[in-house]
Amino acid sequence: MPNSTGPSFTMTSLAMARSRFGRALATVLRRHRLTRGLSQEALAEAAGVHRNYVGMVERGELAPTVENAKRIADALKMSLASIISEAEKS
Fold first, then answer.
1. Three-class SS of residue 15?
2. DSSP letter at 63?
3. Reported confidence tier of residue 9, pLDDT bands at 50, 70, 90
4. Residue 80 is part of a domain; what is its CATH number?
């Protein structure tokens, strides 16, 4: 029997990823990764997430969890607050 929170969570995550803010967040993360000369694989390794996860977030296919967004921000040597603020201004 499927978990009733599974599909709902997936739909919410997908909806956020496709939202204006989700796209802006993806753009901000990608821009800062490229500015630092990091590959998706190098960023993923530094953040402790799978490289496919970074790619999916950057393409707007997946909204990162707060924990993983913090890990990615730390790997970029930025605060999560500054990344979110930048995305909100986009």
1. helix
2. P
3. very low
4. 1.10.260.40
Tokens found for residue 82:
């500054």
- Can you give the pTM of this predicted structure? 0.80
* 87/83 Cα distance (integer angstroms): 6
Our count of domains for the chain comes to 1
Q: How far apart are the C-alpha atoms of 46 and 71, rounded to whole Å?
A: 8
Per-residue b/e over 18-31, b at no fewer than 16 CB within 10 Å? eeeebebbbebbbe
- Which tokens go with 79? 């605060």
Task: Provide the residue range defining the domain that includes 66.
Answer: 5-89
Higher pLDDT, 16 or 67: 67
